[in-house]
Design brief:
Helices cover 27% and strands 18% of the residues. The protein contains 6 helices and 6 strands. The longest helix is centred in the middle third of the chain and has 16 residues. Bound molecules: guanosine-5'-diphosphate.
């Protein structure tokens, strides 16, 4: 049974991962929080570009140096997304330049099965190419300039991503029934999900209301 190819968007906190995913899913102007680290675990979306269907996974901010606390848990979730992915989109922030976290993420991605594509976000002025060039230092090949907010470069980036996807032939057997777990905040939805799946699929924090996004909205555009 073939499965839909998986593209994971990873990067340090606040580089614009959710903005990019919203842009790709055409959720323009939708929920992007000013508060860093709003996506804590992994959010799955069914996406399509140029006739290629894939699962697009949004992740929380990767901080490979974090060993304890919520940051370490979120980083662990992003690593699981990398393991599941066929292509990993490593997003960086032109305004911050190449950071230590970017370097650590690049090193992890070199060891991963997935193919990595590097994108430099927040290049709102396409005429200025100086910042993009600095990201060659990460050794992840060509840095692709984008502005997630303005939608610049996103189409060209997706062309590169879908060209790397494995072949996928949809067949009836891959259509699986869907089940949603709903309930008031903090009643134990994520804990139940983890139990059912027998794995740490969702970050459960003592802090109420940690789960902000939505998982498994496979048909949303
Ligand atoms: P995440 O934590 O990586 O998911 O980052 P977000 O998508 O939440 O974005 C973090 C911040 O960067 C928000 O304030 C966004 O408005 C801002 N941002 C995202 N993309 C761009 C961009 O292309 N240009 C500019 N100037 N700001 C952006």
């Amino acid at each position: 049974m073939s499965r839909l190819p998986v593209v994971a968007v990873v990067g340090a906190p606040n580089v614009g991962k959710s903005s990019l995913v919203n842009r790709i899913m055409r959720r323009r102007g939708a929920v992007v929080s000013e508060q860093p680290g709003t996506t804590r675990d992994r959010a799955y979306n069914r996406a399509e570009w140029a006739g290629h269907e894939f699962t697009l996974v949004d992740t929380g901010g990767m901080e490979p140096s974090a060993k304890v606390g919520l940051e370490a848990l979120v980083t662990l979730q992003a690593r699981v997304a990398v393991e599941e992915a066929d292509v990993v989109l490593h997003l960086t922030d032109a305004r911050l330049g190449v950071t230590e976290a970017d370097g650590a993420i690049a090193r992890e991605l070199r060891r991963a099965r997935a193919k990595a594509v590097l994108a430099v976000n927040k290049l709102d002025n396409p005429a200025d190419d100086t910042e993009r060039h600095r990201f060659y230092a990460l050794g992840e090949g060509e840095p692709h300039a984008i502005s997630a907010i303005h939608g610049l470069g996103v189409g060209d980036l997706l062309d590169v991503v879908v060209a790397l996807l494995p072949d996928y032939e949809p067949d009836a057997e891959t259509e699986v029934p869907r089940l949603a777990i709903v309930g008031r905040p903090n009643v134990g939805k994520s804990t139940l999900l983890n139990r059912l799946l027998g794995a740490e699929r969702a970050v459960v924090s003592e802090r109420a209301g940690t789960r902000r996004g939505r998982r498994g909205d496979r048909n949303r555009r």
